[in-house]
Design goal:
This protein is an alpha/beta fold. The chain contains 15 helices and 19 strands. The two termini are about 35 Å apart. The protein binds zinc ion (ZN).
């Protein structure tokens, strides 16, 4: 494997406030691109790897990677379809209801979703009688959305796109951006562009994984090249100021292992951040979110997790047990590569997404088989990589478990999956 220098660049300073970076507190690389699944052994062998460092800004506390991959390389063959899981469908339905109710949106109102994927979320808005527009950079995925009846513009979103889309489609009541703000190298320009699209009472509503959950639950496998930023409420408020907006309200939602749903509005309408937001920022400071020692402790725990997972799976294999995986999300790429676990330990993994089946987990080359392979091959153990969906997966795979198969969870410490001990699906 090798690095392709043209695809990788290294940012010297914070992407929110411009403060030069201190040394990274965690280094996960060399790491292949998490979602570029090789289809053949030759593609696997030719795959490039890149550094994957994690820094925290000493000024604005934004946790981020300085390692930037050219989006044309990163998202060219994106295979993650949001419409796939029951958990996501339930989340989308609740999200649409929340937005429509909060804003009192009706048939005349436009809701725009940035990085709208296969249109799954906007279909829920259509069901509530609201006009919709998707913006999606991956041409193949945008085409799927159009086929489902969701008008979708194929383009990357940035500050200029916000102005152009408003000119073409008029002001929006809400601009949604789920799991996309964390993906852009210029989050200030992105947020400013989204702000251009909303009317005076409109809101930009962003969902992003919460760095607090990552710290609490050691979710280091949510770190990969697509995720450039890991937001706290304090960092989001600072970002809003840079973009000329106010952070009006923040909700905690359970999706993706714990996310923030941040509501931004025009300063002319909301001259200050919300009172609850200001109180939450003070609580974050109390929990050490701005303290470098917090992140040093996190890194130490990540290395301990690597030792424990390698030890546990290695002992099982040495004892003649077979170990497989469930799922091939980006998380699997990060954890398997960082822990150095290949097909000699995790002999295969399974995935419901037909676009992933037949490929390999990048870097480590664990083959991805259809879900049925779990019942057919009956490995003694299966590590659930999308641990945020563990309860749903365990329910679907009751037959595998009844036949003696056992699920394992990798984080925060590797352990058997026990129904009663796990939190409800998120
Ligand atoms: Zn900063």
């Amino acid at each position: 494997m090798s690095t392709t220098p043209t695809a990788h660049s290294r940012r010297p300073a914070c992407r929110a406030c411009g403060t030069p970076f201190d040394a990274p507190f965690l280094q996960l690389g060399p790491m292949p691109l998490a979602n570029n699944l090789p289809r053949t052994p030759a593609e696997l062998a030719a795959q490039a790897t890149y550094p994957l460092d994690v820094c925290v800004c000493r000024t604005c506390s934004l946790v981020q990677t300085p390692d930037v991959i050219d989006p044309q390389v990163l998202f060219a063959h994106y295979v993650y379809l949001t419409g796939m899981s029951d958990t996501m469908r339930t989340h989308n339905r609740g999200y649409a209801a929340h937005v429509v109710q909060l804003l009192g949106a009706g048939p005349q109102d436009l809701v725009v979703d940035i990085a709208s994927n296969d249109g799954s979320l906007l279909l829920e808005f259509q069901a509530l009688g609201v006009r919709t527009l998707g913006v999606e950079p991956a041409a193949n995925v945008a085409e799927i959305a159009r086929g489902r009846g969701v008008e979708t513009v194929t383009r990357f979103f940035d500050d200029a796109a916000g102005g152009a889309l408003r000119d073409a489609h008029g002001p929006a009541r809400a601009v949604l951006a789920n799991n996309v703000l964390a993906h852009v190298d210029d989050p200030v320009g992105f947020l400013r562009g989204a702000g251009r699209m909303i009317g005076p009472e409109g809101m930009v509503i962003v969902e992003a994984p919460y760095v607090g959950e990552m710290l609490d639950r050691l979710e280091y496998d949510t770190i990969y090249h697509e995720h450039l930023s890991y937001f706290s409420i304090g960092a989001l408020a600072r970002l809003a100021e840079e973009a000329g907006l106010s952070l009006v309200r923040v909700d905690h939602v359970a999706i993706h292992g714990g996310s923030l749903r941040a509501h931004f509005g025009h300063r002319a309408t909301w001259p200050a951040h919300g009172g609850d937001v200001i109180a939450a920022i003070a609580r974050e400071r109390g929990h050490g979110f701005a303290d470098p020692a917090t992140y040093e402790r996190f890194a130490t725990a990540v290395h301990a997790n690597r030792d424990a997972l390698r030890g546990m799976l290695g002992e099982l294999v040495a004892a003649g047990k077979t170990v497989a995986g469930y799922g091939a999300p980006a998380k699997a790429t990060t954890i398997l590569n960082f822990c150095g676990l290949g097909a000699d330990v995790v002999s295969f993994t399974v995935d419901r997404n037909p676009l992933k089946v037949g490929g390999f987990v990048p870097g480590v080359g664990v083959p991805i088989l259809p879900v049925e392979a779990l019942a057919e091959r009956r490995p003694d153990y299966a590590v659930i990589f999308p641990w945020n969906l563990a309860a749903e997966i365990a329910r679907q795979q009751a037959a595998y478990r009844a036949a003696g198969g056992r699920f394992l969870l990798p984080l925060p410490m590797p352990r058997p999956f026990e129904d009663a001990a796990e939190r409800s699906p998120s």
